[in-house]
Amino acid sequence: MRSFLAAIVTVLLSVSVASGGPVRIKDLVEFDGVRGNDLVGYGLVVGLNGTGDGLRNSPFTEDIMSNILERLGVNVTGEQFRPQNVAAVLVTAALPPFARGGSQIDVTVSAIGDADSLLGGTLIMTPLNAADGQIYAVAQGTIIAGGAVAEGDGANVTQGVPTAGVIPSGARVEREIEFDLSSLTNMRLALRDADFTTAARIEEAINLDFGRPVAFMLDSGTVQLDIPQTRMASVAHALGRIENIPVLPERKARVVVDQRSGTIVMGEDVRISRVAVSQGNLTLRIQEAPIAVQPNPFSEGETVVVPRTNAEIEEEPGIGLAEIPTGTSLSEVIAGLNALGVAPRDMIDILKSIKAAGALHAEFIVR
């Protein structure tokens, strides 16, 4: 059997690694002040096919239904009604930056009672409030739920989540967020992944594009932009030019593994120091096969259950002691492990052990 190191060398001869290219600044940063706002509202869904809230268990549904009917001029005071086609819901949405009155946004509708499904339901006019308590949009429309329910007399099956759904363009903006972009004299660019090298490259790229010092790095996550020095017609023109400047980002060496699916994702800069690896598995199998012993016919005695257990230990073939040289990249190690037929979950255990030994030089994230 070929050694672990020989397998790595063999795979290296047939694998080429491509380095990453430049990325637009708009994909690396957030412009300070140019942001969305979360909205939430409490409403009522009607038109359900008997899958709504049980009003005995959800009295708040009856309250909101009574309030809506009273606003529509229907007097229901003292009336007893128990419909099965309504459900109380929470409605959420995100108000995008620079949204203007009359524009439409998507909303998400989620049941908060004991409704079985929102399929086919219609959301009644629901005001959406921001954190300041003001109404910024009003939602209404037919719900598109992402699930299905089928049931019979003895069993039922549910696929997806039928108690939540969306309404595309289901809310209309009624109030605008006050933000005067044109009055700004400086703006901060916030990096999504803080890194001193990337921030310095963004500063250099912007200053090189404008031919003068208009950007200054404040820290690893912030670059400040001097708007007047850009000499553009407006702030919007300056940002439109800046966001398309290409920059080569620098990333931290990082390894992310998902134990449930056996997925391993790694950066190209991950390195491993000199380390030796040995791996093998033991499988323990225990099987119970009890035997019932009965007395002879017409004789005194009792039926006795005699236990019978079959236990065995099996050792599966693994990796013998192999040495990984200094400076080897993790992608090379993974390629070598794949060439030896190591299972993904065993591969994750090997990476954990290498990290615990201090030989894996990267941030190790396990999910």
TrEMBL record:
Asked whether the keyword Signal is assigned, the reply is yes
Per the UniProt entry, the signal peptide is 1-20
Its main localization is other
PANTHER family attached here?
FLAGELLAR P-RING PERIPLASMIC PROTEIN FLGI, FLAGELLAR P-RING PROTEIN
Job description of the protein = Assembles around the rod to form the L-ring and probably protects the motor/basal body from shearing forces during rotation.
Read off the HAMAP family from this record. FlgI
Protein name per Swiss-Prot or TrEMBL: Flagellar P-ring protein
Q: Which species does this protein come from?
A: Roseobacter sinensis
